[in-house]
Every structure is written in structure tokens, then in C-alpha cells.
Amino acid sequence: MGDDENREPxxxxxxxxxxxxxxxxxxxxxxxxxxxxxxxxxGCFGVSLGLLEEFGPERVRDTPLSESAFxxxxxxxxxxxxxxxxxxxxxxxxxxxLDQILNNAATLLxxxxxxxxxxxxxxxxxxxxxxxxxxxxxxxxxxxxHIPGIRVLAPATLExxxxxxxPALADRDPVLIFEHGSLYNVSGELLPPTASVDxxxxxxxxxxxxxSLITYGGSLSKALxxxxxxxxxxxxxxxxxxxxxxxxxxxAVTASVARTHRAxxxxxxxxxxxxxxxxxxxxxxxxxxxxxxxVERVCSAEVPMPYARRxxxxxxxxxxDIVAAAHRAVD
Amino acid sequence: MSVARTTRTRKDPASPKSxxxxxxxxxxxxxxxxxxxxxxxxxxxxxxxxxxxxxxxCVELYSAAKIRGFVHLYIGEEAVAxxxxxxxxxxxxxxxxxxxxxHALARGITAEAVMAEMYGRTTGCSGxxxxxxxxxxxxxxxxxxxxxxxxxxPLAAGLALADRMRGQANVTCCFFxxxxxxxxxxxxxxxxxxxxKLPLLLVCENNLYAMGTALERHEAQTDLAMRAASYGMVSWxxxxxxxxxxxxxxxxxxxxxxxxxxxxFLELRTYRFRAHSMYDPDRYREKGEIEQWKSRDxxxxxxxxxxxxxxxxxxxxxxxEQRITDEIDHAVETAEQAPEEPVExxxxxxxxxxxxxxx
Lengths: 331, 359
Ligand SMILES: Cc1ncc(C[n+]2csc(CCOP(=O)(O)OP(=O)(O)O)c2C)c(N)n1
Description:
heterodimer; A: alpha/beta; globular; B: Rossmann fold; six-stranded parallel sheet; two-stranded antiparallel sheet; binds thiamine diphosphate; EC 1.2.4.1 (chain B); oxidoreductase (chain B); THDP-binding (chain B); DH_E1 (chain B); pyruvate (chain B)
């Protein structure tokens, strides 16, 4: 492993995100970053480390512990022509700002008859896997994907972490970016920007012909792992990374199912009322006659996320669960 | 810390009757309370009467089922909207609540655009998508129209923050009720605004009730100005029935804010003469209490003062009343005839781009 690190220059997901922030702050004076501990501390997850020194406390702005006030202030600043990037430590805490996100950010454009777009980016972490127990581990991005008027992104790769922020800032509407907490330390060689990074399309992370594994965010690596195992058995799995949870890229899902005729949807949220439920319903609505087997879902167990490692692992979708679901569909 | 002042260009108050045209065009004209800051009593009187007569007409229209939804009347509180707005310039920003007809009219949104909105018509100031509780006018920096109690406060801090970051001398004024004082959002915003010295004017309309809950039954400490002062901002309690007192206090506060001393808080002691909303049977207040407050009706108070000093006679009152009646008649007429938004436009303005297609 040490050898590996010496061989090629690697970038972490954290660094990719930081580079995206740096570029945004450099490119446009209207951009500023605001949130709890984004300045002196360097960001709760170290994403904004060093940016305070480079851009100063006006533009890398530490806020009080007041999710509602500083998210709402981001909305107000966006209304007045700024381009704020608001960081919320985790999706759990975003619930204290849910009123501002839903009742203001997502609705002002409509309620004002088109007069008041809210060009705001809100970033936050999501997901489990680090034994942080129930109040730091849930995956609630699906709730946000329920809301019309906002865009919801889930960058799962280094390239998406690096290159989704700029188009998110260019969007005239509120964009929520969900960064899975287990991704920050993932490292690899950052590929040069390609035309494939956009905010409208899902990505085929691995082409296949026998079954579609449809997922996003922190579950992508597990789905890819499952595809490897399935390949060893001679089953060719296509892995679809949704990337944008709202609006969903229906066409990509439909096209994949038309190729493979089988689908497993993997989502770290609870199964009931999840994004996986939405994707499954859409497959049932749009691709029913393409299906050779019922759609399978692999989600988290319906339990507040436990602390104990074995229990947490048991609650989360794992590669083996995905493989088993694929077998059920294929056999 | 100093805040750079930008040069302001003040538009002349345009004629209230802009005739036909697009909603956007209409929004650009309309009555203001005289050139901002002149403090002329007749302007104040006319502005207050416009709000009162407009809302009285709303009651009739509501009873006739012409307008629907939640309608919250401002009658009794007109001195606040007029006194405060008189001091603000067109470049300043205003954030309001669901009880905002008065704020909107005093800000210069035409009775025609507001009435059309009550009718849910395309020509309404929110294109018929907002209704009574969600009046907006971007061209006048009027940012609603928020039906979540205290929901506008953080937003106002952000507007003020943007102005500050760009060195603009604008003030953001946020209206809210005494009920909002109990919400965390008020306290989060007060702390943030004072900490960052934001150019924010917090205008608390203390009408003594949050729906049916009296102030002493919803606040442990009912001296609101004192509590606001604990955040380290200048705070005053003001007679909210006296438009001149409101105007003076606002002027002092706005001067302080523009000089860079951070947010100011005004507690305006006022009273709503009507029920909380059109649905409210108003069982929680004594008749005597209401009558007592009516004896300090802000409109009569100013009229009496003007009559005493010989500035006002019956003819002048009749002229003002006639102008307002014409204006509101015209607003109702045009609203009745205005087109309704086609249903095919249902999904417009959900996002700025093309409508999201959900298969
Ligand atoms: C967050 C929230 N809680 C409750 C309500 C229901 N509600 C609407 S108005 C109101 C009373 C608010 O009183 P106050 O802030 O004093 O304003 P006023 O109506 O007196 O102008 C309540 C409880 C609401 N709209 N929003």
C-alpha cells in the first residue's frame, strides 16, 4: 500500500472537493463558504482546511451553531445576488434547517411567480459506516429528493466531487450536495475533467448485459464489488450511478433495464419510502414489460443505526446482500 | 468598521393609475408614501387609509367568496407599515409575514397588483401563485409574504449580509409578530446579525396576541425590547399607534444601521382591531380591551392631530377618500377581468429551467 502511494500522485475525495471549493472561490467574487467550523477548524471533515488562510474570514465564514439561521441567511444572500455555499455538518443536523430549505429555498421561486430564484448550494455529509450511531449516520437525501424546486446531487467518485460544484453554482436554483462520510478518504488518480460530469445524467460505471445494479453515493463501491463477484460467476452486471437524485435520470434507468431485463436497486436509506422505492416504482411504471424478474431492493434495515460494529454492518447494505439479490433476480 | 455608502437614485413616485399593461410593468409604478423621508402628514394619512380601505374591501370580497384562503387583516396596525416604510429607500429590502397587505402597499406595490394576487390572477404581484400570504415584488426588493412564523428572519439576515459583503449601504427590514419572538429562528437570527453587525432592522409588531394566545401566556418575559437588547443590539419600544413616533424611531434606527452599528430592534406596541384571520371567531379578547385600543386608532389619531393644527379639513379628507376609493374600485375591476393562469402552466416556476418531467 505504501508503495502504491509513492508510485502515483493520488487525490482524496476530500481534496477533490476542496479543490472544487478553491476554484469556485477564485472564479467568482460572489461565492462564499459558510457553515459551522468551516474556517479556523478547517471543516468538520477537513474539506475546507486552508481556505480561510487563502480567502479570509469574510468568504470562509464560521457561523454560530444555528442551522436554521445560517441556511436561511444563505438563501437571503442568494436572493440578493451572492452565490453562497453553505456547509451543514451532517444531514441529521440539516433537519434544524428543513424549514428554510423546504419552505423558503424550494418554494420562493414558485410562490413569487418566477421572480425569486435562489441560486444556493448546500453541502452536507450523509451515511453510515463509521460507528457514529443513530444521530450521525442516517441517509436522508431521499427525503430531499422528494421536494420539487431543488436539485439533489450525490457525487460518488473523485471526478464528480471535483467537477460537480461548478455547474451546481451555475444553476439558478438551490442545489443540495450529499457527500457520503465514508468517501472522504477514498483516494485515486483524479481523471481530467470530461464532458461526462454534468448534473442531468446518470453514469454507467460498468457496462453489463445480465442485470442492472442501480445505486448512488456511498453504495457505489459496494455495487461495483458485487459486479466483480458476479462477473467471476459469469453474470454480467451493469452498474448505474444515479448521481443526481432529483431530477432522476429516468432515461438511463429505462435504457439499462431494456438491456438487462433485471434490476437491483441499492440504497443506504431505509427501505420504506426510500429513493429505492421511487426508482423501483418507476421501473414498474415504465419498464414493466422489459422485466424478466421482480425488481429487487437492497436497503438498510429498518432500525436507527446502531453503534456496535457488527450491528451496524448488519444494518447496512453489503456487497454480499447485493450479490444475493442479483441471484434472486437471475435464477 | 465602516460601510461604504453608494449613491442612490430615487425614482419619482409614479402615478397610481398605470392603466393597462403587463404585471411586470405595473409593478414598477405605484404610489409611495411621498418621496421617502419627507414625513409629510398627508402622505402618511393617505397611505394608512389606503391600507385600511383596501382591507375593508377584502372583507367584503371574502364574504362574497371572491377571494379565498387565509386572509390576515392589518387593520389597526397601519401606522407601523407606513411609518417604517416611509424611511426606507427603494434600494432597501423588506421581508414580511402573512399579515403583509399593509407592508406591501406601503412599499409601493399597487393595490391593483395586490388585489389581482388575492384573486389568484396572472396579473397579481406573484402571478397568482402566492395569494394573500405570499406577496412578492422583486423590483421593489419586497421579499414576501412568509407564512411560516419567524421564517423570514434568517432570510432577512442573508439579504443584509449580501449588502454588507458588497459594501452597499442598504438596510434590510424584517417585519414579524410578538409570537415569532418565541421561535428559535428569531434568536438564532438576532445572535447572527448582532455578531456580524448586519445592517438589519428588526421590526416586531407587538399586537399582544399570537393568534389567540396573549403575550403573557406565551412569553416568560414580556419586555421584548429588553430581551432583544441582550443580544447587544440597540432596541427600543415605540408607540405603534402613532405613525410619527414610528417614523422617528425608524429614522434613528436606520441612521444607526447605515452608520455601521449593526442591527437595531424596534418593538412597536400596536393592536389588531380585527380577528387573527377571516376564520377566527375572536373569542379570546374582551370587547372592552378592543374598544380601548380603538380609541387610539392610528388613523384617527393622526387626523385629529392634523385637524388641531389646521392642516386638514373635511374637504381634504373627502378628496383623499375619493382617490383611494377610485383606486380600489379600479383594482377590483381589473382583477375581476384579469386572465387566470392557464392550467398548462401549472408546473412553471418550480425550477428556473424547463419543467421537470416525471414519467
Ligand atoms: C412555524 C409556525 N407555527 C405556527 C403557525 C400558525 N400561526 C400562524 S399566525 C400565528 C400567530 C403568530 O403571531 P405573531 O407572530 O404575534 O403575529 P401576528 O399574527 O400577531 O401578526 C400562528 C401560531 C405558523 N404559521 N408557523
